[in-house]
Amino acid sequence: MVMRSAIPVGLLLAMLAYVASPAAERVLYEKPSSYNTIVVTEDDQGLRTLRFEPGGARQSVVKVGDPDHLELPYARAMTVGLVVADRPRRVLVVGLGGGTIPGFLHKHYPQTKIDVVDIDPDVVAVAKKFFGFREEATLRAYVADGRRFVATHPNRYDMIFLDAFGADNIPYHLATREFLNLVRRALTPRGIVLANVWSRYSNRLYDAMVRTYQDVFDDLYVVDVRGAGNRILIALPYAQRIDRDALIRRAAQFSKESQLRFDLGECVRYGFRRPGTDGAQADVLHDKPSSKAAVPAG
After folding, report:
1. What percent of the chain is modeled with pLDDT above 90?
2. How far apart are CA 198 and CA 126, in angstroms?
3. Position 130 in a domain
4. 281 found inside a domain
5. Which one of 16, 72, 195, 273 has the lowest number of neighbouring Cβ atoms within 10 Å?
6. Cα separation of 223 and 230, whole Å?
7. Which residues are catalytic?
8. How far is CA 194 from the centre of its chain?
9. 236 three-state secondary structure
10. Structural domain containing residue 123
11. Pairing between β-strand 157-162 and β-strand 113-118 as defined by DSSP bridges
């Protein structure tokens, strides 16, 4: 005898998919801020995720109390800057999120002065309440527009991380030539900039962004991120030929000495390159009069 299911097929499949999910998330916090709808979830493995809209892109994934856990591939790739440049004495991170990058840096360079700036006070509050972010003598968070903050701190930072995103984009006024000129001015003479951007597959202004960095800085490298749509731009205010094979070796050694849980050498081997044709046919991005629009995602 054949028994018919009383459950509609579509609902049954949805139930099976839910049961099979290896890490179902539960919402810990959801509230509109002045800039986004902030959503914090936690999965069965204890990983907490920050999003800027329900079901949106993961802005940060943090294992609270474990700053060495870099869940997102782009966060691992951004640490390439630590082997391109000398040990930084002062670092600026534009875009706090859940505090992944600042937490990792502070763990490995506790004497380095790290300033973090985020425009949204609710993001800072959520990072402290749900993601374990804590200010200390050498780690400070500031609520301010990243552009205005950079403009008031010239010639200060050995390393600047640009990781400011809205729900699915980079604020336009943090992508223009005028902004990047301020970033360059905020660097020390041998400083370095690490910028997290979306590739052209989800960002129609990717090539223009690359072209703009090339217009402002003396040298530029790209790291393609394995398994993600991110590109990490490495911008230098001086010309430097970086030998890829030597960088792979230094990155692998850094991973070993720092006891990282990933091989940074493999990140370099997979994705480190010159921009090539990226940006070759694009125009430089400039400020728009009285505009604070965002770089479109597609």
Report:
1. 83
2. 25
3. yes
4. no
5. 16
6. 9
7. 163
8. 9
9. strand
10. 69-273
11. unpaired
